[in-house]
Amino acid sequence: MITLLIKLKENIIIALKALKEHKMRSVLTTLGIIIGVLTVVSVASIISGLNEGFKDRLSFLGSNTLYIQKYPWMSHGDWYKYRNRPDISMQNYKYLVEHTDDENVIIAPSLSTRRELKFDGDKLTEVPINGVTKESEIVSNISIAEGRFFTNLEIDRRKNRIVIGNTIKEKLFENKEPLGKRVKINGKPFYVIGVMEKKGKFFGNDMDINVYIPIGSFFKNFGYHRSISIEAQVVEQAMFEATKEKLRYLMRFSRGLKPGTEDNFSINQQETIQQQYDSLTNGLYTAAIGIGTLALLVGGIGIMNIMLVSVTERQKEIGIRKAIGATNSIISFQFLVESVIICSLGGIIALILSYFVAIGISAATPFPASVPLWSVFMGLGFSWFIGIFFGLYPAHQAAKLDPIESLHYE
Amino acid sequence: MQVPLIDLRNIRKTYGEDKVPVHALRKIDLAIKNNEYVSIMGPSGSGKSTLMNIIGCLDTPTEGQYFLEGEEVHTMNDNTLARIRNRKIGFVFQTFNLLPRASALHNVELPLIYSGLPADERKKRAEKALEQVKLGHRKDHNPNELSGGQRQRVAIARALVNRPSLLLADEPTGNLDSETGEEIMELFDILHKKGNTILMVTHEEHVANHAHRIINILDGNIAQDRGVVKK
Ligand SMILES: Nc1ncnc2c1ncn2[C@@H]1O[C@H](COP(=O)(O)OP(=O)(O)O)[C@@H](O)[C@H]1O
Ligand SMILES: [Mg+2]
Fold this sequence. Notes:
Oligomer: heterodimer
Radius of gyration of chain A: 33 Å
Bound molecules: adenosine-5'-diphosphate, magnesium ion
Number of helices of chain A: 14
Largest interface: A-B, 25 and 28 residues
Largest sheet of chain A: 6 strands, mixed, barrel
Largest sheet of chain B: 6 strands, mixed
Radius of gyration of chain B: 18 Å
Helix content of chain B: 25-40%
Distance between the termini of chain B: 30 Å
Mean pLDDT of chain A: 87
Strand order of the largest sheet of chain B: 6-7-8-3-9-10
Number of domains of chain B: 1
Structural class of chain A: alpha+beta
Mean pLDDT of chain B: 93
Strand content of chain A: 15-25%
Number of domains of chain A: 2
Number of helices of chain B: 7
Shape of chain B: globular
Number of strands of chain A: 12
Helix content of chain A: 55-70%
Shape of chain A: elongated
Structural class of chain B: alpha/beta
Strand content of chain B: 25-35%
């Protein structure tokens, strides 16, 4: 065991010397390995970045929330069919509320538009305006930092009151006290009653730019003819599927759909996106592994080729080593170590490059790409495997050389 | 009766048997005892190197038996042969056969690496072997920075570092001027006095006369085997 370690150390030194003598050749040889490992690790880091952003984004939607909407989130063409569906109406919403128990499911209507927001001569354009009810505070997970949320009375009376996101406070009010101030949307005045807690950015979108107004006020100011979205938060996770079926039944009933006909609405949920997303990332992984494997294969053949050249070039050396007592297995070990070291070199270069790729992606896109630890091990593992697999044949060729013929080789 | 160190029986070596066969060794019977000092002489192409390579376990005979310390070499596997080359035999070549890109010290260390000695002990022994051949001050030099005589002394240090009982030298002075050659021979004389068995090939009568026994080879046969009368 100890002698094996001694020999391993010697072999690593020998291999490094050989590499130093052929720097350019070694780097060129590792190109395939570099490309292969770089592809796999980069894609892994992109996806892990996507996952990160996606998880945050999805948690926003709430895993136990159902979204009753005119359009499905994931569809396969047929947009025309969905367009012809009736709008989701406030009547639908009220019907659902009346026929369910709020101990089981909390239901809120939701709709939004983008408008200009003015205060004291300053303005912000394209601000997402959301119409909400009391229940939205729970369903849409709204937390108030200053002031308060709407009262039931304010909702019922369709008051022009507004709760603003933190960014609005910063940009429009320059962080001065916004409570009680009057902002204008479409020339209509709204009184600020609350500021939301900061939520941060998700997928590059500022979540704190939103503002909320009572849904009735929304209709009054921006018109009645629009499809709303009904958000239903299931209280008991265990009741999720049952609740979904119940809501579907109620929707169908309220719309007078005959048995056997298709739904003319969609019930969306986080899982739908998750599934679509998973199939996308799986596709990416498969492609990366395909390209990576191909590059590694090409790289491996390159390694094998260069190792065979190296065996021939160093035949005399092999003869000398055998003459003074190197066994066949030591000789083959020596070349195997060299092959693994060349490949590790490629793997390490690839990992360094993929680190920069991740930094580049993080800087250029909203996705927080990083090099996950497991992909570092995977990259090194791949390069070692290639080094061993494609080094075996040259190592065997070196080992079986005849000592006396090799000694006479010039 | 003591078992001879080297015992060759009816050794034949033929190259290129299927085309034009070259009979390098025809029928060699030879026994060499421990601590003998033997010179092998003969014209170029007579089969001296072939014989040395067979004795050194680097090559195998086409026919015949070779017993080393009573054990038949033919029956040994590659690993055992490597071990014998490593521990029992020190081989000195006419062309030195040093690793060109390694220091003198590393060249001498090499056999010890293959016997699995730890680094510090290895270094100590290799340095001692280099001092023995009066090259302690040149241990960090690569072969191309050394003269022919110095290279051959590095090769001798390498052959001796693992304390083999048998020293084989194929024209060790062939590439050296006579003065340097004489230095090498003095070294051999000392080694012989210390108990080594020495077998060397040479063309030169005065080199051969350092030995106690001279074997003449002619055309693959032993033509003459005589003792040297020392004055
Ligand atoms: N590998 C080989 N293949 C074919 N013939 C060889 C080989 N090695 C040596 N010979 C031949 O065998 C004969 C003996 O060679 P060698 O032992 O080198 O002679 P010496 O060392 O006495 O000069 C020569 O005729 C030589 O040409
Ligand atoms: Mg010769």
